[in-house]
Specification:
Pfam families: UDPGT. This protein has about 400 residues and is α/β, with parallel strands linked by helices. The chain folds into 2 domains: about 10-240 and about 385-405, 3-Layer(aba) Sandwich (Rossmann fold), CATH 3.40.50; about 245-385, Rossmann fold, CATH 3.40.50.2000. Helix content is about 40%, strand content about 10%. It contains 17 helices and 10 strands. It has helices at about 20-35, 50, 90-95, 100-110, 125-130, 140-145, 170-180, 190-200, 210-225, 245-250, 265-270, 285-290, 300-310, 325-335, 350-365, 370-385, 390-405, and strands at about 10-15, 40-45, 60-65, 115, 135-140, 205, 230, 295-300, 315, 340. The strands form 2 sheets. It has a 7-stranded parallel β-sheet, with helices on both faces. Strands 8-9-10 form a 3-stranded parallel β-sheet, with helices on both faces. It starts with 9 loop residues before the first strand and ends with a helix. Mean pLDDT is about 90; it is low at about 255.
């Protein structure tokens, strides 16, 4: 699989400092390193201890911690969105914008072939001046990115020409519009302007998906941008161990109290013999393989969406924010591989009865909806796990990158 000769690439990666961005970038770096390419991943200083175990090729993947510049109102301990409130996240974006001189110095020293990025809209211009190709490598789905191309405020449907199978709740459209219309401190631009500049000024757009799943949305973006849309395939980490820790393998565990205050009175006592309440990271892929788990009740983050598709669990989706709503509709409306919990169109509220209906629709043996989503899920899982698919996609991704250098 490794490339030979002098065709190896050097790539600098600078993702938005959120674990949902840092982790997919590192997983992609592992795929490059399998083929002999060199990656430098810019990370927040305290993240190395978390990301280190996921680096499968430390000889080819190097971490480059970068100090977070001081910004008024941003506490010194905040390095990722995990530590930040909603009000502090724009300040973190402003702080990362201030790293431009340090990034310019790094690129000047390393002289990479490519720089991969997502939120830092100034990277394409900087890279172009240094004769480096820039790739907007999105951790969101092509379907989600497509909604950026609406001519005016978002309504329930997407922009003109957008595949019609994905609609938004009214409350979701309002939330998107508010986010897209609010100018942020420091940059003076909106999140939509940030993303559109990053996308439109880059040399190509990369997604960790495949055309069989999201082809129509990729074609829509290609028609809008008139630049290459490069697909890396479904990049999902392989479980590090087949064995679960005892606390996960042998239910129920005791003494897990980190998120007690967020639970209804008596909730843990009522469910103690039936499940686990845990507030930290968990080995999700391995849990989904556990024989006691029949349904995956997911918020539809993009990484979890792929892990769900590749699992044998029945999918019940309950999105909460942002692109999760679009991913949920991709699963429940477009691919028809899961059941979405009904929410109020105007207020976004859901009920325990609605949760129960969705779970029963997905799981009950006599459910017509359940039979349909199980059949579709089986079909797509078999396809996504077919031998050679992942490697073929990533090999093609690398070749398309090389073509940009010619």
């Amino acid at each position: 699989m490794a490339d030979t000769g002098n065709n190896t690439l050097t790539i600098v990666m600078y993702p938005w400092f959120a674990m949902g961005h840092l982790t997919p970038y590192l997983l992609t770096a592992n795929k490059f390193a399998e083929r002999g390419h060199k990656i430098i991943l810019i990370i927040p200083p305290k993240a190395q201890s978390i990301l280190g175990p996921l680096n499968l090729h430390p000889g080819l993947i190097g971490f480059r911690p970068i100090p977070i510049p001081h910004v008024e109102g941003l506490p010194a301990h905040i390095e990722t969105t995990n530590d930040a409130t909603m009000q502090e996240k724009p300040l973190l974006r402003h702080a990362l914008d201030l790293t431009q001189p340090a990034v310019q110095s790094l690129l000047s020293d390393l002289k990479p072939d490519f720089v991969f990025f997502d939120m830092l809209y100034w990277i394409p211009g900087l890279a172009r001046r240094m004769q480096i190709k820039s790739i907007h490598y999105s951790v969101a789905s092509p379907a989600s990115v497509g909604f950026l191309f609406a001519d005016g405020p978002l309504i329930e449907g997407g922009p003109t020409g957008f595949p019609a199978s994905i609609k938004l709740y009214k409350h979701t459209a309002r939330d998107f519009n508010k986010l897209f219309e609010t100018k942020e401190i420091g940059s003076g631009i909106t999140v939509k302007q940030r993303l559109m500049t990053a996308i439109c000024e880059s040399d190509a757009i990369g997604f960790k998906t495949c055309k069989e799943i999201e082809g129509p949305y990729c074609q829509f973006l290609e028609s809008k941008l008139n630049k290459p849309i490069l697909l890396a395939g479904p990049i999902v980490p392989k479980p590090q161990s087949l064995a679960l820790d005892e606390k996960w393998a042998d239910w129920p565990p005791l003494g897990i109290d980190k998120i007690e205050e967020a639970l209804p009175n008596g909730f843990k006592e009522r469910t103690r013999e039936r499940g686990i309440v845990h507030g930290d990271w968990v080995p999700q892929q391995q849990i989904l393989k556990h024989p006691s788990v029949g349904s995956f009740f997911t918020h539809c983050g993009y990484g979890s969406m792929w892990e769900g598709l590749m699992s044998e669990c029945q999918l019940v989706v309950l999105p909460h924010v942002g692109d999760q709503y679009i991913n949920a509709r991709l699963l429940s409306w477009d691919l028809k591989v899961g059941v979405e919990v009904e929410k109020g169109d105007e207020d976004g509220l859901f009920t325990k009865e609605g949760v129960h209906r969705a779970i029963m629709a997905a799981m009950a043996e006599d459910s017509e909806i359940g039979r349909e989503v199980r059949a579709n899920h089986d079909k797509w899982r078999e396809f996504l796990l077919s031998e050679g698919l992942e490697d073929a996609y990533f090999d093609n991704f690398v070749e398309n990158l090389r073509a940009l250098l010619e």
